[in-house]
C-alpha cells in the first residue's frame, strides 16, 4: 500500500517482480555509469516499465506501486462514477492518503515534495488504467501550482495541506458562456467594497465544479484598463461562501465520470485576503501557468495513445475473421505499423518537453506544440483503433468506445488547438 510521501513509497517497491525484469538486468551498469535505457519503441509493449531515459529505476518502482493501485482500486470504480456523473468524495481522500495528490507541490508548503516526473507517472498510470475520474490533473497539476507560486503563507497553510490530503477539492473558474480561449473577454467581475470584494458573474464547463471546495476564480477587477489583460485578478472562493451557487452537473459526450458544472456568483463577498497574487495581475499569472497545464494534457494524451494501441493490438491478435486472426491481414498490420510509429515519435517529443520542464526551460511555444500534436494524435488513434475493433468498438462497455468519446475534448480545453497553432506561428513569422 502506498503511503503519503513519495520518498517513503519508493523503497516499498524493491523486490517486486515487474515488467522491468530481464530488460533491466540486460542494462547492467557499465564502468560505474548507468546504461542507456531502451526507448519505448524497443519494449515489448508501449506501456512497459523500464524504458525512457527521463526516468530512473527508483521512479520505476514508484510507477509499479501506482500502477497496481490504479488498476486494482481506482479502475473498478469508474463505472459507478460514470453512472453518478462524479467521483466520490471518499476517493479524493483515498488518493490523498495514498500520496497521489499534490505530488510535485513542495513539501514545505504542504505538498508531497517530489518532482514533476513523479506527478507525470501518476497521470500516465491513470490513463493506462483507463481512469478518467477523478480529475486529478486539474486539482494537482493545474490548481495547486497557483497557490505554490502566488499564494501568501496564510493561503498556502490554509489550503495546500487539505488539497494534498484530498479534503479540499480544487477547481479553476476561467471559462464563461461568452469567453472560452479568449480569457480577456470574461465578464465575471469583482468590485471593491471597503476591505472586501464583491463578485458577480458565472462560469461554465468547470471541471470538479460540482464537488469543488475551493475555486480559483478569474475576475475582471479593472474594467477601464487600457488592455483587458491588465484588469484581471484571481480569487480563492470557498464553496460555502454566501452567493456562490452550483448549477446542475453537465451531461457530456465523454469524461462522464468527472463532475463538470456551471458556477454562479451573486454578490459574493470575499475578504481582501482572498486575492491570489497581485491585483490586476491575474492574466499574467494564468499565462505563466498555462505551459504546465498544456503539458499535462499532452502527457495524458500520449499515454492514452499508448494504451489504446496496446488494447487494440491484443484485440486484433485474438479476433478471428476469414479463418484467421484479424492481425494476419496485411492492411491491419500496416495500420498498426503506422499507429506505433506515430505514437513513439510523439512520445519522444513529449519526453523532451518533460525533461525541459523539470529544468524550468519549457517555453509556451513548445508546450503549445505538445498539446496540439498529442491531442490531435489521440483523436486519430482513437478513431483508427475503434475501427479495428469493428462493431464491438461501438459498444459503450468497451474501453475503446470510452476512449474515443473522452479524446474529443482534448483538442478543445486548455486552449483550442487552433489557438495553439496561432501561438506557435507567432514566433515563426515575427522578426527576430
Shape summary: globular
Distance between the termini: 54 Å
Low-confidence stretches: 1-32
SSE run? HHHHHHHHEEEEEEEEHEEHHHH
Mean pLDDT: 92
List the strand order in the largest sheet: 1-4-5-8
Beta fraction: 5-15%
Helix share, percent? 40-55%
Topology summary:
Blueprint: H1 6-9, H2 21-25, H3 57-74, H4 78-84, H5 89-97, H6 116-128, H7 136-150, H8 153-165, E1 170-173, E2 189-193, E3 196-207, E4 214-220, E5 232-238, E6 244-249, E7 260-271, E8 275-276, H9 282-318, E9 320-321, E10 324-325, H10 330-358, H11 364-389, H12 399-407, H13 417-429
Helix pairs in contact: 3-6, 6-9, 7-8, 7-9, 9-10, 9-11, 9-12, 10-11, 11-12, 11-13
Can you give a write-up of this model?
With 432 residues, this protein is α+β, with helices and mostly antiparallel strands. The protein has a four-stranded mixed beta sheet, covered by helices on one side. Strands 2-3-7-6 form a four-stranded antiparallel beta sheet, with no helix packed on it. A two-stranded antiparallel ribbon has the order 9-10. α9 runs antiparallel to α10 and α9 packs parallel to α11. The longest helix has 37 residues. The N and C termini lie far apart (54 Å). The relative contact order is 0.10.
Quick take:
The chain has 432 residues and is an alpha+beta fold.
